[in-house]
TrEMBL record, chain A:
Keyword Cell membrane among UniProt keywords: yes
Database matches in Gene3D superfamilies: MetI-like (1.10.3720.10)
Pfam families: BPD_transp_1 (PF00528)
Residues of the ABC transmembrane type-1 domain: 79-293
Membrane topology: Multi-pass membrane protein
Transmembrane spans: 20-39, 85-104, 116-137, 157-177, 213-237, 272-294
Compartments it resides in: Cell membrane
Family membership noted in the UniProt record: Belongs to the binding-protein-dependent transport system permease family.
Record flagged with keyword Transmembrane: yes
The protein's name: Sugar ABC transporter permease
Keywords noted in UniProt: Cell membrane, Membrane, Transmembrane, Transmembrane helix, Transport
UniProtKB/TrEMBL annotation, chain B:
Keywords linked to the UniProt accession: Periplasm, Signal
Species lineage: Bacteria, Pseudomonadati, Pseudomonadota, Alphaproteobacteria, Hyphomicrobiales
Domain of life of the native organism: Bacteria
Pfam family, one: SBP_bac_1
Similarity-based family: Belongs to the bacterial solute-binding protein 1 family.
Signal peptide segment: 1-24
Localization per Swiss-Prot or TrEMBL: Periplasm
Entry-linked PANTHER family: ARABINOSE-BINDING PROTEIN-RELATED, DIACETYLCHITOBIOSE BINDING PROTEIN DASA
Gene3D superfamilies for the chain: Periplasmic binding protein-like II
Location (main, coarse): periplasm
Name of this chain's protein: Sugar ABC transporter substrate-binding protein
InterPro entries (UniProt xref): Bact_solute-bd_prot1, SBP
Length: 301, 421
């Protein structure tokens, strides 16, 4: 008796079906945990809703959240703070990360231990790192005030978390400390993939260390640099715990990034429609920035 | 002794609630709280749960701790997902959003049926939302003054009784003890970092004494009054002159005080257990705050969610009845070391155990009499935004050295805008 339905995956014309079948569970899962919440978030952003519930009727469509958002000084301030954080933290992460990668890529005694030290901040949980830095920069009993006074840099204590500029600086320092090991590890991996022949040939041609760095190392690292830059930028963009635990976005919103603003509106003020609008705008900015960087990366190789 | 008392209480509760046993077989009620591991009050909740379970064979309470910092998020997510805990425990400044969404069951029929007497129950007025009782108040407190007697004596100071005396004492006891340019000892201690709710509670020590209120009885914003401006000036004086350590959380400030690094501290009943574990335990004495009226307010509430079954609602009400019963209100005083909200609670045992208990009661009554609450009338729903706004404007006043009159005007304008949202 002939079967009513058969799926002959051995047939050359249907071989690709197996691939789709094997991918299907992963695609469904991604759809469920990423795409669906994203759709819900976009939907809520177009409703005037405080605390959102999925089992309640949909509120009328409105663009009020977006109108309010783009007219809000707080949003532009948070965007500016986020941009400053991205530029400063990414730049310092790259400089320190590349320098430490170059250092531990050399052969010297204790190299394994040095590599461990470089990677250590990356392994430390963010909240613990923040607590340590918060203690170091404590305004009344912190280590940094004591050190600066002893060294004669200041004659009175700095209220690190009561000064907008100082608080921003402390957040940047903590993020750089936490973020540079990732760059360092990626760069180290990139450095180890550069053939030694390139350097030997350059040496034969009389290139000095600086010329080898600029003409061989950096160009060879460009593919890794591009991807790392995007990942670091996205990390700074979405990082929440460092700022939230350290300053809560203050003082005077000096450290309020878009992610902190989203959280505050959603779970502090229970304005989930407005918070979703901030989240959607943040997502669009992230996608555009990532696309621009990834898109440009091949040209630089 | 305590175990025996609790057993007796449990048996009493079991007998009182035996009528409800029949329908409650093999059920699990979810109870989420941030107070689970807190010494004292956590033990009291455990005793209530034990009594409830003994009175309801087959019903278990699944008690889960959620940290205070993540509490509002967690509860919002649970409610929004249609899966609220059966026993709702919320802070008194956050339940309004839940009530306003219709997520809390009106309790008036339950109160009427069970003849629960909530007359003169401290802070219970706060639980009335849109003319319906949606919760029972579990704590109303008043601030008292704790002072380090040694530090005051060294400066030849007596216990301050007015703001002027307090300011003088705070100035004289704020010191750099070893001459390294860093202040090691502070006159007083306030949280100046963290949430807006605690920040405005700290400010209220000074604004209330100056005669100021955020809003009047009708909910009209009254921040630009001369009294409030005077209160803001006092706050600026204390913080700007570093008479309090800066950028510290409430917990850190309390610990510094308990360890003898702060001379004067105004706080609620929860300060006492912290003092007992501190290094300066023997030097710390207590008195009424040098301000009138003292800061006070409602603290936390119990409620029933609308989204659970009728049977579960009845069970949760039984739980609330046990927690609000006279015997358990009496043990609240001893275990929680705080004046219970019930006017009928027997607090003799608490007085015998805690030499400050009379003072705590006096402070609570003084605050209640003056109708002091951290949550301003007319701004309950917007409280989080309001307190954040006040904190930011006060910080701006201190950082940018602004005139308190101008700051009060800004706060007034922003608070009115919040009310109109």
């Amino acid at each position: 008796m002939k079967p009513r339905f058969s799926l002959d995956l051995a047939r050359p014309s249907r071989r690709h079906w197996l691939g789709y079948l094997l991918l299907a569970p992963a695609v469904l899962l991604i759809g469920l945990i990423i795409i669906y919440p994203l759709i819900v978030s976009v939907d809520i952003s177009f409703q005037n809703v405080n605390i959102a519930r999925l089992d309640q009727p949909r509120r009328p469509f409105t663009t009020a959240n977006y109108e309010r958002l783009f007219a809000s000084g707080d949003f532009w301030n948070a965007s500016w703070v986020t941009l400053k954080l991205i530029v400063i933290v990414s730049l310092f992460c790259f400089v320190i990360g590349l320098a430490t990668a170059l250092l531990v890529n050399n052969k010297f005694k204790g190299r394994t231990f040095a590599r461990l030290l470089v990677a250590l901040p990356w392994a430390m949980p963010e909240v613990i790192a923040v607590v340590i830095f918060a203690w170091m920069f404590d305004s009344s009993f912190g280590l940094m005030n004591w050190v600066f006074i002893k060294l004669g840099f200041i004659d009175t204590t700095i209220n690190w978390f009561s000064s907008p500029a100082a608080a921003f600086a402390v957040v940047c320092i903590t993020m750089i400390w936490k973020g540079y090991p990732f760059v360092s590890i990626m760069m180290l991996a990139g450095l180890q993939s550069i053939p030694e022949d390139f350097y030997n040939a350059a040496r034969v041609d009389g290139a000095n260390a600086w010329q080898r760095l600029v003409n061989i190392t950096i160009p060879s690292l460009m593919p890794v640099l591009g991807v790392t830059l995007v990942l670091v930028m996205l990390w700074v963009f979405r990082d929440f715990s460092i700022i939230y635990v350290m300053t809560g976005g203050g003082p005077l919103k000096a450290t309020q990034s878009l992610s902190i603003m989203t959280y505050e509106q959603a779970f502090g003020f229970f304005k989930m429609g407005y918070a979703s609008a901030i989240g959607v705008v943040t997502l669009i900015i992230c996608v555009i920035a990532s696309r621009l960087m990834i898109g440009r990366a091949p040209d630089n190789i | 002794m305590l175990r025996r008392t609790l057993t007796v209480l449990a048996t009493t509760a079991a007998l009182a609630l035996s009528t409800n046993v029949a329908f409650a077989q093999n059920k699990v009620l979810k109870f989420v709280s941030w107070q689970k591991d807190e010494r004292g009050v956590g033990d009291w909740w455990a005793s209530v749960i034990k009594a409830f379970e003994e009175a309801h064979p087959g019903v278990k309470i699944e008690w889960t701790k959620v940290e205070r910092g993540a509490y509002a998020d967690t509860m919002t997510t649970l409610f929004a997902g249609g899966n609220p805990p059966d026993i709702v425990h919320l802070a008194s400044f956050e339940f309004q959003k839940f009530a306003d969404n219709g997520w809390l069951e009106p309790l008036d029929p339950y109160i009427k049926d069970s003849k629960l007497d909530l007359i003169n129950w401290a802070g219970q007025d706060t639980c009335v939302w849109n003319k319906q009782t949606v919760c029972t108040m579990m704590l109303y407190f008043g601030y008292f003054l704790a002072y380090n007697e040694d530090l005051l004596k060294k400066e030849g100071l007596s216990v301050p009784k007015t703001y002027a005396e307090f300011l003088e004492a705070a100035k004289k006891t704020t010191k750099d003890l070893n001459g390294d340019g860093i202040i090691d000892q502070y006159g007083t201690g306030h949280e100046t970092r963290g949430g807006g709710g605690q920040y405005i509670s700290e400010m209220m020590n000074y604004t209330l004494d100056a005669g100021g209120r955020w809003t009047d009885e009708n909910g009209k914003v009254t921040i630009n009054t001369p009294q409030m401006i005077e209160g803001l000036s006092r706050w600026k004086t204390i913080v700007k002159n570093n008479l309090t350590p800066r950028d510290m959380s409430a917990g850190e400030v309390r610990q510094l005080f308990a360890d003898g690094k702060i001379a004067l501290k105004m706080d609620g009943p929860w300060l006492w257990p912290i003092i007992q574990k501190g290094k300066a335990k023997d030097q710390i004495k207590t008195a009424m705050v040098p301000f009138n009226p003292p800061v006070g307010g409602s603290s936390n509430i119990l409620a029933i969610p609308t989204d659970i079954s009728k049977d579960n609602k009845k069970l949760v009400w039984d739980f609330i009845k046990i927690a609000t019963s006279d015997p358990f209100q009496s043990t609240y005083a001893t275990l929680g070391a705080s004046p219970p909200p019930s006017p009928r609670a027997d607090i003799k045992a608490a007085k015998a155990e805690n030499p400050n208990f009379d003072l705590l009661v006096e402070a609570t009554q003084a605050a209640a009499k003056a109708k002091v609450d951290r949550i301003p009338k007319g701004l309950e729903i917007q409280f989080n935004e309001f307190s954040k706004m006040v904190m930011e404007e006060a910080q701006r006043m201190i950082i940018q050295d602004l005139d308190p009159k101008a700051v009060a005007a800004t706060m007034q304008q922003k608070a009115e805008a919040l009310q109109q949202q």
